[in-house]
Write a structure and sequence with these properties.
The protein is built from 19 helices and 21 strands. It is α+β, with helices and mostly antiparallel strands and 502 residues long. The protein folds into 2 domains: 241 residues, Nucleotidyltransferase, domain 5, CATH 3.30.420; 131 residues, ATPase, nucleotide binding domain (Nucleotidyltransferase, domain 5), CATH 3.30.420. A hairpin with a 2-residue loop joins strand 15 and strand 16. Helix 15 crosses helix 19. The radius of gyration is 22 Å and the shape is globular.
Length: 502
């Protein structure tokens, strides 16, 4: 164990974060949890912010635990996190307040104001990114349109993982996969680098001066700063690496067997479902179908759809806890299995389910408004969420097949959701595909693997994926026929069409 290379992956999500140690013995990877902590938006006087200094403190705590456990310095450290959110630095490199959370209401109504200056179709054709009001473009436009003084004082914008990498080593750069989530970055054609869409940003009124250089995944940014080494007790410096810093891109990088006949689902609070391509798909049809293009590794593009995922049930659980009832995931799956099939269906991406609040009432209200029976029991709510999410996967799969012409027969599910056997089997049944689940710790594994590639311990990403495949056991689910899925798909298609028309 002491002879193996040990990399630290800082893997941040919207509801929690952890530091994992990835051990590379020259053939296989093993992950060990080093430090885990809660995360979430903090509401203060009508806004929702991230407590960035606490996250930074948790990273330092994790590094201290590494030093206590292993004594030597790690072979590298890298941060992956969610997309779209950012911090601003002044000319002295100081953070201008906490970053605002993507669920903050400041972007309400902003996309329409932006499209009055530059059309939605024009922005999509340039960036390939589907419109969501949480996107960086609209967050910055909201600041510009309200004369936010932080924007006037800002010299540098850094996305969340890039901000933490800056804290680690002092380098102010944005990593490519994160830049691609902003709806401000032109993805390059096959084999060519992209760039910030500066002309579009000028028309929107967003200052170009804040945009730093974009670096490719696998870039060694520099060494951990002396203050970090002193604080955490290291005598030897270690590299800080920009991996695929968007957690979805790191997760996709970890998937063994991902090929032209496979789609992926990164399943967590959000579900990101798509395929890995050589070039973006920026047609008007792709925009109409709700697909987005984001950066992947080794020059690849991820054509995918962002779906509201396990957030639905997470918010249900939060409401039940407020009402004095505790529900674990095993109980939810068992109760759902016992509930009546297809009693209530919802469209996960409908506006009613996007904001924090009483999710139970939101689901009841949606069902009643559509003439459906509203769920009442824990099992009915859980079954509604699981079935609806599976049908959203089916709809997305149909779109991917139409846009790419690919014969997709396998769906590879990674992330925490791949451990939910009930959801995996339901996904296989809804989509009529083989579902292969794993790895669960996909973002952390991809993070670690890309660090190993960056320092020359592994030849390339293809070799890294193969090594991950040798390092874990994957579980397969075959589709079962019948069961009312044909009628359910028709019902869901009508519901989804109503959302699009609305």
């Amino acid at each position: 164990m002491r002879d193996a290379m040990k990399f630290v992956a800082v893997d941040l999500g919207a509801s929690g974060g952890r530091l994992m140690v990835g051990v590379w013995d020259g053939r296989r990877f093993a992950l060990e949890e080093l430090h885990r902590f809660a995360n979430g938006g903090v509401s203060v006087r009508g806004s929702v912010e991230w407590d960035m200094l606490r996250l930074w403190q948790e990273i330092q705590t994790g590094l201290m635990k590494f030093k206590a456990r292993y004594e030597d310095a790690p072979a590298g450290i890298a941060v992956d996190a969610w997309g779209v959110d950012f911090g601003l630095l002044d000319k002295h490199g100081r953070m201008l307040g906490n970053p605002t959370c993507y669920r903050d209401p400041r972007t309400n109504g902003i996309p329409e104001k932006v499209f009055a200056r530059v059309s939605e179709a024009e922005i999509f054709a340039a960036t390939g990114v589907q419109t969501m009001q949480i996107n960086t473009l609209f967050q910055l436009a909201a600041m510009a349109m309200t004369d936010d003084p932080r924007l006037e004082c800002a010299e540098t914008l850094l996305m969340i993982p890039d901000l933490l990498s800056y804290f680690l080593c002092g380098e102010k750069q944005v990593e490519y996969t994160e830049a691609s989530t902003t709806q401000m970055y032109r993805l390059g054609a096959q084999g060519r680098a992209g760039s910030w869409d500066r002309e579009m940003l000028r028309r929107v009124g967003i200052p170009e001066r804040i945009l730093p250089r974009v670096v490719a995944p696998g870039t060694v940014l520099g060494e951990a700063g002396g203050d970090v080494l002193e604080m955490c007790g290291f005598a030897q410096a270690f590299p800080v690496i920009a991996v695929a810093s968007h957690d979805t891109a790191s997760a996709v990088a970890s998937i063994p067997g991902l090929d032209a006949g496979s789609a992926f689902i990164s399943s967590g609070t959000w579900s990101l479902m798509g395929v890995e391509l050589d070039a973006p798909v920026t047609s008007e049809r792709a925009r109409e179908l709700g697909f987005t293009n984001e950066g992947g590794c080794a020059g690849k593009t991820l054509l995918m759809r962002n779906l509201t995922g396990l957030w639905l049930l997470q918010e249900c659980v939060r409401q039940w806890e407020k009402e004095g009832r505790s529900c674990g995931w095993d109980e939810l799956a068992a109760e759902a299995q016992a509930a009546k099939a297809f009693r209530s269906l919802i469209v996960p991406n409908a506006a009613a389910f996007q904001a924090p609040g009483n999710m139970l009432e939101a689901i009841r209200g949606y069902c009643r408004a559509g003439g459906q029976a509203a769920p009442e029991t824990v099992g009915e709510f859980a079954r509604c969420c699981f079935e609806s999410l599976s049908l959203a996967y089916w709809s997305t799969l149909e779109g991917l097949r139409a846009l790419t012409g690919a014969d997709i027969r396998t769906i590879r599910v990674v992330g925490g959701g791949c451990l939910n056997r009930f959801l995996c089997q339901m996904t296989a049944d809804a989509c009529g595909c083989t579902v292969v689940s794993g790895p669960a710790e996909a973002s952390a594994l991809g993070n670690v693997m890309l660090q190993a590639v960056a320092v020359g311990a592994i030849e390339n990403i293809a070799a890294g994926r193969a090594s991950i495949g040798e390092s874990l056991e994957l579980v397969s689910y075959e589709p079962r026929g019948g069961g009312g899925w044909d009628e359910a798909r028709e019902r869901y298609g009508r519901l989804e069409g109503a959302v699009v028309r609305g």
